[in-house]
TrEMBL record:
This is Putative manganese catalase. Its cofactor is Mn(2+). Binds 2 manganese ions per subunit. Coiled coil: none annotated. The lineage of its organism: Bacteria, Bacillati, Bacillota, Clostridia, Eubacteriales. It comes from Pelotomaculum propionicicum. InterPro entries: Ferritin-like, Ferritin-like_SF, Mn_catalase. GO terms for molecular function: catalase activity; metal ion binding. Its EC number is 1.11.1.6. Belongs to the manganese catalase family. It comes from the Bacteria.
């Protein structure tokens, strides 16, 4: 989506839109970063080895992504971009539901009596 939005846009126009530094370093390539330009890092991935804690972290991540998509939808007036963002937002909702189901399953297994 990002590539399509900047494909063929002149460098001067990218600079005027505040994307000059990105263009200088990455051209029009996708470079994962947050809205402030902070690059993505694997340090963002949380894993403790505790399935309950990790699933709660996954649930929170899905909700944060959903909220981000909602705000991005508010920032654009392009119908095609809005449709894409709505699809991605709905996908986060489904992921949240599946992680919730997995959490319920894990909790049930951990609370089950084991007979030997």
């Amino acid at each position: 989506m990002i590539y399509k939005l900047v494909k063929g846009v002149p460098a001067q126009q990218l600079r005027e839109a505040g994307l000059g530094a990105h263009f200088a370093e990455h051209d029009r390539a996708v470079y994962p970063a947050d809205a402030a330009g902070v690059p993505w890092t694997a340090a963002y991935i949380q894993a403790t080895g505790d399935p309950i804690a990790d699933l709660h972290e996954d649930l929170a991540a899905e909700q944060k992504a959903r909220a981000t998509y909602e705000r991005l939808i508010q920032l654009t007036d392009d119908p095609g971009i809005k449709d894409t963002l709505r699809f991605l937002r709905e996908r986060e909702v489904v992921h949240f539901q599946r992680f919730g189901e997995a959490l319920n399953d894990i909790q049930a297994l951990m609370n089950a009596k084991t007979m030997y």
